[in-house]
Amino acid sequence: MEIVILAAGKGTRMRSDYPKVLHTIGGKPMLEHVIATAYSLTPTQIHVVVGHGGDKIRETFSDLDCEKINWVVQHEQLGTGHAMQQVLPHINSTSEGNQILVLFGDVPLVRTQTLLQLVTSCKPPSLALLTARPANPRGFGRIIRNKADKVVSIIEERDANAEQRQINEVNTGIMAIPVVHLIRWLKALKNYNNQREFYLTDIVAMAATEQCPINALTITDEIQVMGVNDKHQLASVERHFQLRQVETLLESGVILRDPARLDIRGEVICGKDTVIDCNVVLEGKVSLGNTVEIGANCIIKDAVIGDGSKVLPGTHIEGSTIGNKASVGPMARLRPGTKLGDETKIGNFVETKNAEIGKGTKANHLAYLGDVKIGENCNIGAGVIVCNYDGANKHKTIIGNNVFVGSNSVLVAPVELKDNAFVAAGSTINTQVPADHLAVARSKQRNIAGWKRPIKKQ
Ligand code: UD1
Ligand code: MG
Q1: Nearest ligand, measured from the Cα of 156
Q2: Tell me: the pLDDT tens digits for 201-225?
Q3: Which ligand is closest in space to the CA of residue 170?
């Protein structure tokens, strides 16, 4: 089997400067979802027809492992049938028993299982169609059946009369076509319709005329075949996609305070009895252990969070690893390269970047810790700033175990604070503090007696 994905359309109804199939569902371009599903069917080749914005589409997928993908350019978008005509010279499997499965780049939620059912439901030379009976058939092509209930044609909504528009069985666009007939049928397509386009759907009437068996498989889960033609449908497909992911999470034992207020834009693995509060966004690869608590309004991207850790409300985490029983936030920001040990505490308005922080260490308030390695059981006081940047280069700060850095201290990197060092509040430290030493680096306090406050001028 070879697969064709049609993705060349202009997407006029999207009213967008971007090619339609690059609009994202769950943070991934629609076309990427379809390509992934196509791959899961292990076809010999996947032909993706691009046209409008084709360069941009290929550029987007240049990093993806696409060795099975053959990009076909449709220079002018003259319809779905015309798009298929562009693929013809690239079809390898011309032997009789082969079929071509057609998928649409703008129908991203179809499942592998459904497609397997379709391609095995009938063998060439039959034609297999995936149809649906959605509550609202607006915009879809309608399936026309004869008195014997056999499919005889598909008529697009724009070409349908009032009576045909009442039909609620629709064409999902997904079909498996026997290669033996495809070449002949595509050659015979005409563009005598409202849009002056060559419709792939017209091959159905040809098949019926030739008495070629047509097997229509009707899918009950209409969500899978929702098409995205405008931004309403984009929003609607996004919501359905999110609910689908949330169901998987719930099944794995997670507690969600409101399944409608969690967005997953990537892959999430989650342990048991982990609780996720409302308005949380999980992006990229996120792994949450058992009994983790994620507070409201957190954004977590590419992170691993260990068992029993708490992420308090309003926290941003990206590219970070957090051990077990740690506490982060509220309103903390962990930037890429942060590695927190077990039982660490990162409090409000603390920012970390490229920071390795040992077990039991606390930075509870208002600090910046960038390019640091901090040992175990340290206390980083309120307002401690690490000056890692000299205006040209970044430098490292190394702090041993059991170090106390007093509030409002500035650590000018590169600098090292050895085990058990103690930095007095308000110090500016720019040379090494040896082990077990107190460093005081601030001007001495003077108390001036008899000082008069300035008096306000009249
Ligand atoms: C199409 C079907 C319709 C079906 C619906 C399901 C046809 C004629 N109509 O209508 O019966 O109910 O999908 O979602 O097939 N494309 C190209 N080149 C073109 C035109 C389109 O590659 O010249 C691609 C588009 O990028 C898109 C797909 O084909 O991925 C469908 O095109 P679109 O214009 O969205 O067709 P619909 O009006 O949705
Ligand atoms: Mg469409």
Answers
A1: 1
A2: 999 999 999 999 999 999 999 999 9
A3: 1
